[in-house]
Amino acid sequence: MNSKYLVVFAIMLMSALVNAQNRFEAHIFDAEANSPLVGANAAVKGSTIGATTDQEGKIVLNNVPDGAQTILISFVGYETREMQFEFPLETEEPQVIYLFPKGEEMEEVIISATRSRRTIADLPTRVEVISGEELGEKGNMKPGDIRMLLNETTGIRTQQTSATSYNSSIRIQGLDGKYTQLLKDGYPLYSGFSGGLSLLQIVPLDLQQVEVIKGASSTLYGGGAIAGLVNLVSKKPTEAGELNFLLNGTSALGLDVSSFYSNKWDKIGTTVFASYNYGNPYDPADIGLTAIPEFNRYTVNPRLFYYINDRTTLEVGVNTVIEERTGGNIDFIKGEEVQDPYFERNNTERITTRAGFDQYYLDGSYLSVKNSFSFFERKIEIPDFVFSGDQFASFNEVAYNFGSTEMEWIAGLNLNVDSFEEDPNPQAQVVDYNHITYGAFLQNNWSVSQTFSLETGLRADYQNEYGFFVLPRLSAMFNFSENVTARVGGGLGYKTPTIFTEDAERIQFRYVLPIDVSQTEAERSIGLNLDVNYRTELFKTIDFSLNTLLFYTKVNDPLILSNAGGEFYEYTQPAGYIDTKGLEANMRFKYGNFKLFTGYTLADVNRHYGGETTEMPLVAQHRLNNVLVYEIEESLVIGLEGYYYGPQDLNDGTTGQDYWIFGLMTEKKWEDFSIFLNFENFTDTRQTGFDTIYTGSISDPQFRDIYAPVDGFVINGGVKIRI
C-alpha cells in the first residue's frame, strides 16, 4: 500500500516538475537605433539559466521555473534591465525589450576574430577594434586602401617594400609582415605571392569594423599568425537598406570612386561593393623616379544572402580585382622617349569566391561552414627580368559553437591549400610549391566568476611538407573593479617557409632560388603578453582611460634571404632566433567635444645568431602617435595628428634619421552627405628630403631601405553621399 502511494506521489511530482519548466522568448533592441542587439545577455536571476541573442537580437531561455522570476537583460555599454515576470506567462508571444545606451563607457561590438560570440569587454583575449566614426575618419585619409587605417594604430606599422611601386606589408610589434595573418570575415586573405600588394588593393568603404589581435594567434587560424592577425569585418544587409558613394581626389592627381549598396527583403539580402582607383605618376622630390606609381584598379564584390529561416543563413559571394601598376622613371611612364629607363610593372588579376552557411539553434549553439577559392595571377616586370606565376588558395572550415554564456566551446576542422606555379623562366629556377594543411581546433571560454574569465585553445595541424604542429593557447582576464581590468595570455605558433617575404619582394624575386624542403624546417614561435586597462573620470569632467601592454615574441629558426654568390639569392636557416619585446601604452582623454589620443610603442627587436646580437633593420624602437579631435556629433570633425618615428638601423649598416609626420583632417556632415578635406604630412617629411633612396644611376638604381615617406605633402578631399 505504501509503495503504491509512493509511486503515485513520484509520478505527480515528476509531472509538476515537467509542467514547471517554462520558455521565455524575447527580441532585444537598441532603444535609440531600433536595431537588434547581437550578443546581448539574458539570465534568470539567482540561477544558471542564461543565453545570448543571435543575429536577429532573439533570445530564448528554457526551463524557467514556475512563479515570480526576475529576468536580467544586459549588454556592454547599455543600461541593465531587471524585469519581473510570473511564470507560466499569460501569452507565448515573444517579449520586445529595449536597452538604452550608457554613452561611451565601453565598446559594445561583437568580436568575430576570436570565433566567440562575446563582446570586446567580455573577452580574455586582448582585441583592438576600429569601428564606427573612427573607421570612417581614417578611411577618409586614404579612401583607396587600408594602409592609413593600420599605420596609425599603436604597435602596427605598414612597411613600404618598394621605393617606386608603393608595395607594403603589415608589421606588428616590429616583426616582418610574413608573420601577420590578414583575414576578411574570418576567411584567410592575401598571402604568399599576393601579400606584397594586399594593403594597396583593399578599399575600406564596405567595412563595418577592423579587429586586431597582437601576439600568438596561430591557435585560432593556423600558421602565419605569429605576430598577430587583422580581421576585416564587412557590412551585412539590413532591412533599413544602405547606399553609399564616395568620391575622392588628391593633389597628386589621384582619384577614388567607390560605392556600396545593401538591402534585405524577407528571405533575400545582398551587398554590392564596387570601386575604381587611379594613381597618377608623382615625383615630389623631382629626382626622376615615382614616389606614387601610375595605377588603375577595378574592384567588384557582390554578395548574396539567403535567409532560409530566422536561424539559418546561406551566403555566397565573389571578389574580383584587376590592376595595372607601374613605377620607376617618371618620364618613361608618361610616354616620353627615355634611353635605358628603369621601371617596375605589376599586373595583377584576382578572383576570390566564398560561401558560408550559419545555423543557429534554440539552445544558443550554432554551426558555421565556410569555403573560399582564390585565384591570383601576377606579373612583375623590370628591365631585363620578368617574374610571374599563378597562386591558388582554398580555405575550408566547419566549426560548432556550443555551451552556455558561462562555459562556451568552439570546435572545428579545416583544410587549407596554398599552391604556386611559376611561369617558365629561362633566367632562373622555378619556385613552385604545393602546401596542404589539415587542422583541428578546440577552444573554451569559461566565465569562472564575475571577476575572472579564462580562454583556452588547442590546435593540431598537419602540413604535407613540414609535418605536425600542436599549438596550445591560454588567455585570462581579471576584473579587479569597474575601473581596472587585466589580461594575460600566450601561445605557440608556426610559419611554413615560402620565398614570398619582404626581402624577396624588395628585389622583385629576381634570381631567388627555390627552398630546399629537405634542408629547412618550419619557423616556430612562442608569444606572451600582459595588459592592464584603467578607466576613470578626472575632476568629474574628463573621461580618461589608460591601456598598457607588455609583449614578448620569440621566433626560432627564422628563414633568412642571403646572397648565394653572383646574382643569386637563397634562403637559409642559421642556428639562432629573432625576438621582439617591449610595451605599448595608449591614453585617451575626452572633455566635452574634445578627444585626445596618445600612444607610445617601444619595440626592441633583435637577431641572435652565432652568439652575436644585432638590432633588426627597419624597426623604429620608439614611436609616438598623437591625435587631437574636436567633434560635434553628426555635424563636424576636425583632427590634428602628430607621429614620431625614432632612428632605424638599415640593411646597409647605416642608421636612418628620426622624423615627425603631421596631418590635419576635417569633415563636415549633413544628414545625407558629408564633405572632407585632409592635409596629410603638411610638413612635407620625405626620405628624399633628408636622405637618399638609391645609389648608382637613374637607369640602374640600387635602392636603399625605405624607412620614411616618399610621397610627402598630399592634400585629398571629396564627398560621401548616403541614400
TrEMBL record:
InterPro entries xrefs: Beta-barrel_TonB, Beta-barrel_TonB_sf, CarboxyPept-like_regulatory, Plug_dom, Plug_dom_sf, TonB-dep_rcpt-like
Keywords: Cell outer membrane, Membrane, Receptor, Signal, TonB box, Transmembrane, Transmembrane beta strand, Transport
Domain called TonB-dependent receptor-like beta-barrel: residue spans: 270-681
All residue ranges annotated as the TonB-dependent receptor plug domain in the record: 121-228
Compartments, as annotated in UniProt: Cell outer membrane
KW Signal (keyword) present: yes
Pfam family, one: Plug
Signal peptide start-end: 1-20
Principal place of residence: membrane
Gene3D superfamilies the record matches: Carboxypeptidase-like, regulatory domain, TonB-dependent receptor, beta-barrel domain, TonB-dependent receptor, plug domain
Source superkingdom: Bacteria
SUPFAM superfamilies: Carboxypeptidase regulatory domain-like (SSF49464), Porins (SSF56935)
Keyword field contains Transmembrane: yes
Membrane topology: Multi-pass membrane protein
Family: Belongs to the TonB-dependent receptor family.
Name of the protein this chain belongs to: TonB-dependent receptor domain-containing protein
Organism the protein comes from: Salinimicrobium gaetbulicola
